[in-house]
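Deliverable D4.2, example record:
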Amino acid sequence: MDNTTISLKEQYQSFKAENPKVRIRDAAKQLGVSEADLVAVGDNNIALKADFETMLKEIKTLGHVMALTRNDHAVHERKGIYTKATFNGHIGLVVNPDIDLRLFMNAWHFGFAVSEGERRSLQFFDKDGTAVHKIYLTEQSDVQAYETLVANYQVVVQGEALQTTTIDKSIVENPDGEINVAGFRQAWLDLKDTHHFFGLLRDFGVARRQAMRLAPEGHATPISVASLKRILEGVSERDLEIMVFIGSRGCIQIHTGKVKKLLQTGPWFNVLDPEFNMHLREDGIESVWLVKKPTEDGTVTSLEAFDAEGNVIVQFFGKRKPRIPEREDWRQVVTDYAVTV
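Output generated by the structure prediction step:
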């Protein structure tokens, strides 16, 4: 282990002693390193081979786990059993009622088995050391299966310094004047499936937040953060089932079901249910949009929150399936509580 690694390890130990409640992601920012750099110098952490697709196909052996995906302003935690991951090129899927993931494997570069006291997890990071996905054992998990998996995938030489690389994550918007706005609006109105929206943006060279501004009339309306929270309170009060999408560069994690226990803690607006937790940092939200997209099954209504750089923080939909129209109770709660700004 080289002097740089030892030095960082000592820095982190001192930092933790002085700041025991600061989370590792925030500690990394304050120390000027990546989260993966700090994980790599943890005493009991084990570096894993980058054979992530094969490993993910075996997560089901662990039984009941907690999947965690986050970005700078939102955290999505969902408990359940991973079914077998399937892959088509770099795109992977884990699909079941509990844990529902879209995986983008070109953003998975480092993996570790992490021990924090009694808490054990598998943690995966982008090439810049940003976490893309984590899998935590629960009280119901198969610890022996976890240990077997770690033994099978750990690298032979432990303790090597990470070679992280900076990623340019900036979103560049083409000037509105260079975009075929009329064509873009018509293509939006002609949508047949919400999954085609990404292709629509790509075809017209439109960034996602920019699309909100350029949308056909009545199809993207800015609403207040307070009304977003009020809509979720209405969802809880009316016992509705919704879909909550939160993503990193390497994973989009989806909860489908109810959101019942809501709690404000400082700047964080939280869902704290037994199988699903969401933590949404209000002061990271630059704008929230009420979005309508046509499909063959009728209009689909979503709420989309963006940060100041134009990244999607979180999306909310009513629970729905293909070939079934959107739920009226979801449309109603949005209508009742959305306040335009």
